[in-house]
Amino acid sequence: MPSTSVVFDGPASPDLTLAPFRRGGGDPCHRVAVDGAIWRTSVTTGGPVTARISKSGPHVVDCEAWGPGAAEFLDGFAALVGAEDDSSDFHPVEPTIAEAHRRVPHLRLGRSGRVLEALVPAILEQRVSGMDAWRAWRRLVTAYGAPAPGPAPAGLRVAPTAEAWRRIPSWEFHRANVDPGRARTIVACAQRADALERLTAERAVTGLQSLPGVGAWTVAETVQRAYGDADALSVGDYHLSTVVGRSLLGHPIDDDAMLELLEPLRPHRQRAVRLLEASGLAHNPRFGARQAIPNLRAL
């Protein structure tokens, strides 16, 4: 059974780093065990993989992996848990963000290197509540994914391959309460999966925005996870500008005002948002729908 360890120069916090990769408490691809270990699945170019991620010391994160994709997953493990995240030039002077940084100096941004794996859930989350999107993700992964390899917890699944996403019938998306627009976007992206996985970090935004149905918000949510982009703000999010405004100014603001307010923090604007959330200093935390949509299952 292949394994590896990453030693950090400060407190290790895989739970904080991997939190954005989890799609709700019932995510069939991500499970936190009672002992604190994180079980996560992925689909690499070599095949599916199950990983068990745990801490063996204050500064050490370990990973055991099973399945055909184990070696490839372990090769990218250091990046996934944030060991390659560079915040050396991040020195915020805005008081609330500076305090958040003092509270959580060990926050690191992870990079999965898996574009479709980050893109499909982001498409599902377009214009709907997180709960509705996570239910759809859980239903589709359970039905069209595969059992996790190795000694995985019961119910852990590997997300569908690009080929599997392409073959999901339209009525199955409908049963998962995914409207035709999002369903078509997922299928179209899956059809271009090989090209998407070849995108470099420098070309990712332009490449992703060229896809019909993939806008700025979806691109930001994708590059945050696939490339660990520390500056990618989810502009257009139903709650984000309100959270930033209330947290830093004491009142809600719109996207334009948020961009102006966070401009001095380039290239770490997304890092600042994550720090607000992780430190507990974010006011008016995200909840509810981005935009109400009809219950398609009832139609």
UniProtKB/TrEMBL annotation:
<dbReference type="InterPro" id="IPR003265">
    <property type="entry name" value="HhH-GPD_domain"/>
</dbReference>
<dbReference type="InterPro" id="IPR051912">
    <property type="entry name" value="Alkylbase_DNA_Glycosylase/TA"/>
</dbReference>
<protein>
    <recommendedName>
        <fullName>DNA-3-methyladenine glycosylase II</fullName>
        <ecNumber>3.2.2.21</ecNumber>
    </recommendedName>
</protein>
<keyword id="KW-0234">DNA repair</keyword>
<keyword id="KW-0227">DNA damage</keyword>
